[in-house]
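Weekly structure sync, notes
Attendees: PL (lead), two postdocs, one rotation student
Agenda item 3: pending single-chain targets
PL asked that the sequence for the first pending target be pasted directly into the notes so everyone works from the same version. It is reproduced below exactly as submitted, 155 residues in total.
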Amino acid sequence: YYNTGQIEKTLEISQKAVDVAPNYFDAQVNLAMLAIYLGKNELMEKTLKDIETYADSDLDRGNYNRLVGYPKIISALVGNKQYEKSVFYYRKMVEEIDPRNDQKGNARYYAELAQVYVELGKKDLAVEAMKKASGIDPNAYKEAGDQLIKALESR
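Predicted structure, written out during the meeting:
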């Protein structure tokens, strides 16, 4: 429905999916993303809270669900310039879920977080995040990190 421009129908179907299966993590993530894209902040806040509650209650799959769902939520938040809220999810990805899991992925999240901090005007935090990305995966982020840090220092 979304791709055909039937936004209200998309929202209706997504909400029904969550109502029918409130513990279906993917349905919750899809509803949250839709709420973010549509600027429905109250629904977004409620759905994001439900996602956290569900992930916390499912210890066997909670972190796996977060690893799959958070990048989608982050993408929607950043795409809609909700940078402050995206920081929360980036930090959860790299610090709380499993900071040892997929270190190369964490390097990417730190590099993306650095860009978010730039958007927020938080130069010191941007430099710190980029240094972490470079430290984890220097082949991918050392040069870009050095360039970002140099650019920020010249501001």
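Discussion points:
- The radius of gyration is 17 Å.
- Helices lie at 7-20, 25-38, 41-57, 62-79, 83-97, 103-120, 123-136, 138-153.
Action: rotation student to compare against the earlier draft before next sync.
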